[in-house]
Specification:
One of its GO terms (cellular component) is ATP-binding cassette (ABC) transporter complex, substrate-binding subunit-containing. GO terms for molecular function: ABC-type ferric iron transporter activity; ATP binding; ATP hydrolysis activity. Keywords: ATP-binding, Cell membrane, Membrane, Nucleotide-binding, Translocase, Transport. This is ABC transporter ATP-binding protein. There is one protein chain. This protein has 225 residues and is of the alpha/beta class. Helix content is 34%, strand content 27%. The chain contains seven helices and ten strands. Strands 6-7-8-3-9-10 form a six-stranded mixed beta sheet, sandwiched between helices. α2 packs parallel to α4 and α3 crosses α4. The longest helix has 18 residues. The two termini are 34 Å apart. 41% of the residues are buried. The chain binds adenosine-5'-diphosphate (ADP) (2 copies). One adenosine-5'-diphosphate binds next to β4.
């Protein structure tokens, strides 16, 4: 069985239950948005899936594999953060190619794949620019392209639009939606923005206090009191 499965996932920091007994399955190709106020455990949830934290209780399965046996760098997930973390001394294409280093792809093939990802994200004209010569929206798209070329089993997006101004946020949101329609990629997208969660998610998971309070298709979750 592909996709992501979280079972009784629990992570406590001191007396804070950051993630508290979360059960969740994300099907192959499904786009799940996780929404909730600051401190509700969204980032911790992503870090647990990515393996940047070990759970106190429970586990993570990706494509049927028990992640307690798979170290972070071997997990087939791509994590994209709000602050895009591009290498300032590398050009756009070099930043994208960096995502392929982990896969040991031959150089010519790597270039081809990077070009294709850049094309998909509307970056074909800025391949040789440096990050400080890009808009915020372009930088975030480079981060997405770098994730894309790794062809991971799942994308983990942590507030990827939060650093953008209102207008760019809307256009980049539309880009994400289009990209998802193209790729049908398994995605967990964390946000505190309810409208964003409702627009992007095939399914919306509402978190509070480390727990899932509601989960369902956007209309359903939205309609409930
Ligand atoms: P969100 O992403 O929804 O804002 P987080 O997952 O960042 O929530 O945090 C959930 C709770 O866990 C918060 O109370 C936060 O202060 C706490 N927390 C998160 N990471 C750590 C950490 N490394 N050390 C201590 N407490 C943490
Ligand atoms: P160490 O204590 O040596 O860091 P751990 O056994 O705590 O090693 O964790 C090894 C790796 O597996 C880490 O990446 C950790 O995040 C992850 N991990 C541990 N237990 C689980 C689990 N039940 N589900 C998913 N990932 C886990």
């Amino acid at each position: 069985p592909g996709g992501i499965r979280l079972q009784a996932l629990t992570k406590t920091y001191g007396r804070v239950s950051a993630v508290d007994g979360v059960d969740l399955e994300v099907a192959v190709g499904e786009f799940v948005t996780v929404v909730g106020p600051s401190g509700s455990g969204k980032s911790t949830l992503l870090r647990l899936i990515a393996g940047l934290e070990a759970p106190d209780v429970g586990g993570v399965w990706i494509d049927g594999l028990d992640m307690s046996r798979v170290p972070p760098h071997r997990r087939s997930v791509a994590l994209v953060f709000q602050d895009y973390a591009l290498y300032p001394h590398l050009t756009v294409v070099e930043n994208i190619l960096f995502g392929l280093r982990v896969r040991r792809v031959p150089r010519a093939e790597a270039r081809r794949q990077a070009g294709e990802a850049a094309e998909q994200l509307g970056l074909a004209d800025v391949l040789d620019r440096y990050p400080d010569q890009l808009s915020g929206g372009q930088r975030q798209r480079v981060a997405l392209a770098r994730a894309l070329v790794r062809a991971p089993s799942a994308y983990l997006l942590d507030e990827p639009l939060a650093g953008l101004d209102a207008q760019l946020r809307l256009s980049t949101r539309a880009d994400l939606l289009a990209l998802h329609r193209d790729l049908g990629a398994t995605t967990v997208h964390v946000t505190h923005d309810q409208a964003e969660a409702m627009t992007l998610g095939d399914r919306v998971v509402i978190m509070a206090g480390g727990r899932i309070r509601q989960a369902g298709p956007p209309q359903e979750v939205y309609d409930r009191p």
